[in-house]
Write a structure and sequence with these properties.
By secondary structure, this protein is of the alpha+beta class. The chain has a single domain, classed as YaeB-like fold (2-Layer Sandwich). It contains 6 helices and 9 strands; from the N terminus they run αβααββββββαβααβ. The strands form 2 sheets. The protein has a 5-stranded mixed beta sheet. A hairpin with a 5-residue loop joins strand 2 and strand 3.
């Protein structure tokens, strides 16, 4: 019991450090966000994308600065969209045997992404932490244009992550490396930040996704 509480405390501290700061962008009645097809094709939470976008556009959810100038977050309470599910699992002695690894790529129209190694638990094998919020990850219109995707809104949701607290987990090291490889290989041209990369390593060494 004590170990479980300690693990939860560490999760709260680590994830809270990635919550960012509110930008104050909550335009009442303005369509500042739209859902990108990439998110619809690659987010396990895809059925809830439109409901989350509506809450943002109605000014009920504030935008939060992300790790890059073109990234914004929005944290939507799971209960607000009637989402029920599990998110991450702490790696402890006894459950590592169920951890799966496979090379994969995300569904992308231009098929330019390089395969990457993903670790995860199958949702049929294990129960993850209950989801507290859905973290909408958004790119600015300028970044979408840079990646060759037209959008009319100020921001486009490119992913919707199920999180165990009101925040967002550190970006995985593999995602950071892919982003640094550039748009040509499915990234976004972000440079690697050694400190942030290490934070991702520290977090995902102890946790794994449930999918």
């Amino acid at each position: 019991m004590l170990t479980s509480l300690l693990v939860l405390f560490v999760l709260l501290v680590v994830v809270a450090s990635f919550s960012g700061q509110e930008t104050g962008e909550t335009l009442q009645g303005g369509a500042i966000v739209e859902v990108n097809d990439f998110a619809r094709n690659n987010s396990p939470t895809a059925p809830f994308l439109d409901a989350c976008a509506a809450l943002i556009n109605e000014g009920k959810v504030s935008l939060v600065n992300g790790p890059d100038p073109f990234v914004r977050y929005a944290f939507i309470e799971a209960a607000a969209v009637n989402y029920q599910g599990n998110s991450t699992v702490a790696l402890v002695k006894g459950n590592e045997i169920g951890l799966r690894c496979e090379y994969t790529t995300r569904i992308n129209e231009d098929d330019k992404e390089l395969p990457y190694l993903e670790r995860f638990f199958d949702k049929s094998d294990i129960d993850g932490a209950p989801v507290v919020c859905l973290a909408a990850i958004m790119y600015t219109k300028e970044q979408m244009k840079k990646e060759g995707i037209a959008t009319e809104a100020e921001y486009a949701i490119i992913a919707l992550n199920a999180e165990p607290i009101m925040g967002v987990s550190p970006m995985s090291p593999s995602t950071q490396v892919r982003n640094a490889l550039g748009i040509e290989f499915g990234g976004n041209d972000s440079e690697i930040d050694r400190e942030y990369h290490q934070e991702g390593v520290d977090f995902w060494t102890k946790w794994a996704l449930v999918k």
